Amino acid sequence: MPYKAKKPCGHPGCPELVSDRYCEAHRKEAHTNYNKYLRDPDTARRYGTLWRRVRTAYIRTHPLCELCEQRGRLRPAEEVHHKLPLANGGTHDRDNLQALCKSCHSSITARESAGWHGGK
Hints:
By secondary structure, the chain is mainly alpha-helical. 42% of the residues lie in helices and 10% in strands. It has a domain at 49-112. A hairpin with an 8-residue loop joins strand 1 (7-8) and strand 2.
């Protein structure tokens, strides 16, 4: 399968060509700024170090998108989804998690939040 063409890093003025949004030099800075200035503090607390460990372990044991697998497609899992969101009383327990590709995760998230902006 052909790769997408590389594009300039999303950091203003950076000429690096990347496959993702940011080059290696700016990825951590962008993540820090997002968590510090844009992300709700309650959400940031729920998705800390513990979540990163749980997510890594879950992806290791569930490397394929569970929804795509049910449909007969084999796509790598890139996200871990909480079936019952943490904000609604969900937990990081394995039975509340689902390994998904970005496409499936985006679809579910949009459907659950009535769009990308939480129904606003």
